[in-house]
């Protein structure tokens, strides 16, 4: 999803026709490409298992854009306990799964656009109807990401994030 308003990038000076409203991490921060061939590891578009000991699901941190009907989102990875991961997997294709209570998890995606790490922020993962990615609710702390989720962000902040992600000093979301 993108905004219909473009912007002029302060990093490269180019005019971009669309302002992105969604970014996704391909894998949890602890994933290593060498795991791809291991029998006890799995990385799909929605789930990840590392060494049959660490379990992750991909969900959305949604942030309202102030003064707009638009929603900004980060597709992030959250670690779950073995029991909660098994339960989520059992219900993955089940109608009515959205009535399941939320699962506690730890954020395992580093979003470098924040001044302090986003790794290991406490979350609740809310299952949604079939075909929808889970909603990741951050614990209501003073962390800037949690504050943004509660209070929303401006279009200027959306532009600032776009510039930081599209022209990173280091890595993008991981």
SSE order and pairing:
Layout (H helix, E strand, L loop, with lengths): L1 E2 L3 E2 L6 E2 L2 E2 L1 E3 L17 E2 L3 E4 L3 E11 L6 E10 L1 H9 L12 E5 L14 E5 L8 E4 L5 H8 L3 H12 L8
Parallel strand pairs: 5-9
Antiparallel strand pairs: 1-4, 2-3, 6-7, 7-8, 8-9, 9-10, 10-11, 11-12
Q: Could you write a compact summary of the structure shown?
A:
With 174 residues, the chain is of the alpha+beta class. The chain has helices spanning 82-90, 144-151, 155-166; strands spanning 2-3, 7-8, 15-16, 19-20, 22-24, 42-43, 47-50, 54-64, 71-80, 103-107, 122-126, 135-138.
How would you describe this structure to a colleague?
The protein has helices spanning about 80-90, 145-150, 155-165; strands at about 1-5, 5-10, 15, 20, 20-25, 40-45, 45-50, 55-65, 70-80, 105, 120-125, 135-140. With about 170 residues, it is α+β, with helices and mostly antiparallel strands. The radius of gyration is 17 Å and the shape is globular. It has one domain.
What is the domain tally? Answer: 1
Uncertain residue segments: 170-174
Question: How does the helix and strand content classify structurally?
Answer: alpha+beta
Report on the biggest sheet.
8 strands, mixed
Total strand count, please? 12
Integer-rounded radius of gyration: 17 Å
Distance between the termini: 20 Å
Number of helices: 3
Order of helices and strands: EEEEEEEEEHEEEHH
Average residue pLDDT: 91
What proportion of the residues form beta strands (DSSP E)?
25-35%
Global outline: globular
What is the helical fraction, as a range of percent? 10-25%
């Amino acid at each position: 999803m993108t905004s219909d308003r473009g912007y002029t990038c302060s990093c490269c000076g180019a005019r971009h026709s669309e302002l992105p409203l969604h970014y996704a991490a391909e894998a949890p921060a602890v994933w290593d490409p060498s795991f791809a061939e291991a029998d006890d590891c799995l990385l799909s578009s929605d789930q990840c298992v590392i060494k049959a000991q660490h379990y992750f699901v991909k969900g959305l941190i949604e942030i309202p854009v102030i003064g707009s009907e638009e929603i900004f989102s980060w597709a992030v990875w959250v670690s779950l306990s073995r029991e909660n991961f098994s339960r989520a997997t059992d219900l993955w294709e089940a109608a009515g799964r959205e009535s399941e209570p939320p699962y506690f998890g730890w954020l395992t995606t580093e979003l470098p656009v924040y001044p302090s790490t986003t790794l290991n922020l406490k979350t609740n993962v809310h299952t949604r109807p079939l075909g929808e990615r889970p909603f990741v609710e951050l614990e209501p702390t003073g962390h800037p990401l949690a504050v943004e989720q509660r209070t929303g962000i401006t279009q200027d902040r959306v532009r600032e994030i776009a510039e930081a992600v599209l022209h990173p000093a280091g890595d993008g979301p991981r």
